[in-house]
Amino acid sequence: MATDGQILRLAQWLSPAYPVGAFAYSHGLESAVATGAVADGAALTDWLADILRFGAGRSDTIFLRAAYEAPPEDLPDIDALARAFQPSAERRTETTAQGAAFARVTAAVWPDDLPDFTYPVALGRAARLHDLPLGLTARLYLQAFVSNLVSAGIRLIPIGQTEGQQVLTALQPLCEEVAEVALTETLDDLAGTSFLADIASMTHETQYSRLFRT
């Protein structure tokens, strides 16, 4: 059972106020909206559900678990695999820039010995250093990940704030389900089949008008 202090620590780390720059990234959603692939709240829900099940939602959770459970000497190899697993240059920037920012701020505040890993690897290692529950860390990470993309969808499609909260609420059970399953898996189980989202992140690199970095 997580203590109040552990819950509050994770809420702080995964809050939009924690300066990792998550607001600047759309994970390819901006390109999907520009092409008409995501045009309303229902399409946004489906798009994000696929990313959770078959894309970064699942794979990031596997990397988070691996980093949480690994001895320190294995972390560079896990991080190298996390970087290699990114399907595009922008997605690599998304995870490395947020991970570096998270490591920098966390090490300055507590302080911790936390290298500039990719975001899920940095979070997994930090959670281990602070003795935070792995399951809760994974669930709140996925909730924060989806919340950021819903926020991007609100601005891009656009949809209203209330509909955005309806999308997020609809995806909460899936965040729990993906975390529960992914936390039983290892790096050998890594796979990614959210191909449209991956392609969207590639086409975004040359998109003429952009609000987001990815």
UniProtKB/TrEMBL annotation:
Q: Which InterPro entries match?
A: UreF, UreF_sf
The regions listed as transmembrane in this protein's record are none
Q: Does the keyword Chaperone apply?
A: yes
One Gene Ontology MF term: nickel cation binding
**Does Transmembrane show up as a keyword for this record?**
no
The listed locations are:
Cytoplasm
Instruction: Check the record and name the Gene3D superfamilies matching this protein.
Output: Urease accessory protein UreF
GO CC aspect terms: cytoplasm
Could you tell me the keywords of this UniProt record?
Answer: Chaperone, Cytoplasm, Nickel insertion
The role this protein plays is: Required for maturation of urease via the functional incorporation of the urease nickel metallocenter.
Q: Its family? A: Belongs to the UreF family.
- Protein name as annotated: Urease accessory protein UreF
